[in-house]
Every structure is written in C-alpha cells, then in structure tokens.
Amino acid sequence: DAGVTQSPTHLIKTRGQQVTLRCSPISGHKSVSWYQQVLGQGPQFIFQYYEKEERGRGNFPDRFSARQFPNYSSELNVNALLLGDSALYLCASSLLGTAGNTIYFGEGSWLTVV
Amino acid sequence: GEDVEQSLFLSVREGDSSVINCTYTDSSSTYLYWYKQEPGAGLQLLTYIFSNMDMKQDQRLTVLLNKKDKHLSLRIADTQTGDSAIYFCAEWEAGNNRKLIWGLGTSLAVNP
Questions:
Q1: How far is CA B98 from CA A94, A109, B6, in A?
Q2: A59-101, pLDDT tens digit by residue?
Q3: How far apart, in whole angstroms, are the C-alpha atoms of residue A107 and residue B92?
C-alpha cells in the first residue's frame, strides 16, 4: 500500500504569490493534519481535518487555509506568501485523528519563498 | 502551557547504546511518540507509548516512560551509522486542537 503522498516535493515562489500543496493519506485513513517545519525546529501544527470537517487549527494567520475532499485527500493553501513561510510542509495521516492512532507523515513539500 | 524539551545533540560510537531523553509538561498527555528524520526527508514513525505504560520494546528500540516526572526516553541498542538522524519526541494533545506538540529534536551522530 502507498504511504502518505505529497506534492509537489519542492517549489520556489516569490513574495506575495499563492501556493497550493496537496496530500493523499494512506488508504482507509480519514484524518489529515498539516504541520509546518522551519529549518532547525520541530513541526508546528497548522490544521487537522476529519471527514471533510476542520477539527483543529493552530496559531497561523488567515492566509493559511485548507480543505479535505470526499476521497480524504487534502490541500493546504497559503496566500500572500512571506519570506518566513519558507519551510517544509508536512502532511500527517491517521485513521480517525484521535488519541492512540498511529500517525504517519509524508515526505513533505519544501517551499522556498524568495 | 505545553512544552516538550529534548537535548539537542548526542554522539555515540557504533555498536554502543544511544539514549535520547525528552521531558513534557502536559500531564493530560495520553500518547507520546518518537519520530526519526533523516536529512531532507519527512518524519518516520518509530514507536509510541500510551501513558499508562512504563515501557515498550520493539526490536532495538526501548521506550521508557516516567509519568510522575514527565520524562520519556528512547534507547537504541547496538547503534549503527544508519541511525544517524534527528529524533523527535512528540506528545498528543487531545484538547480542542487534536495535535502533536513537538520538541526541537535531538541530532544523533554515530561515529564508526
């Protein structure tokens, strides 16, 4: 079975642009979460989705938005990009998104904002 | 508030055991996780432990949990050069935001 897949793997954007990152969870998993990892730091929680509904939101500005589709895949959108948005964006997949679930991550999308 | 702390660096010789330590603050944490991250890669789940357990063993990995002291450790037996990576401790926060709270990671260097 395929693991968590994310696309694109690397991208470069200029300040002010918009970006869409995509994630396909493990087959059968209904919950997707997004994390931002800045170089040298641990990941920071952005969103959690379960059954197409937002179940959690981290301390990120409204420029960040996400959605989950009926097939449980998800997109993360970031508008009006800033240099500080440069990071590795990680998608996490779990069965139910609750405690005790094994949580698997994709390889991430490396975003560089210039 | 929530906080997870780890020592930043650990250096061991190949064949020795590695012990990576982590402390957390949220006493309501139910699950604690260990992940491995190699350079330029995503996060690989190594193991996780439920807070009512003291120990969990999985092949070369042993997790010890001291809930009273909110201390978690990951022991890697017979450490190999392929174990060189950053190891993250994370606690599950089950409040309004269902999320993992992460430490800064411990960079493990294995010397031949």
A1: 12, 22, 22
A2: 999 999 999 999 999 999 999 999 999 999 999 999 988 877 8
A3: 21
DSSP state of B27: T
Q: Burial of B5 by CB count in 10 Å (0-12 exposed, 13-18 middle, 19+ buried)? A: middle
Is the Cβ of A103 closer than 8 Å to some Cβ of chain B?
Answer: yes
Note whether A45 and A33 are within 8 A (CB): yes
Q: Under an 8 A CB cutoff, do B97 and A57 touch?
A: yes
Picking from A33, A88, A107, the nearest residue to B99 by CB comes out as A33
* pLDDT score, position B2: 63
Q: Which residues of B touch A103 (CB under 8 A)?
A: 33, 45, 100
The shortest CB-CB distance from A42 to any of B96, B97, B105 is to B105
Residue A99: the pLDDT is 75
Give the mean pLDDT of A24-33: 96
Range list of β-strands (E), chain B: 4-6, 9-13, 18-24, 31-37, 43-50, 55-58, 61-66, 71-76, 85-94, 98-102, 106-111
Residue contact B42–A48, C-beta within 8 A: no
CB-CB contact of A3 with A104 (8 Å): yes
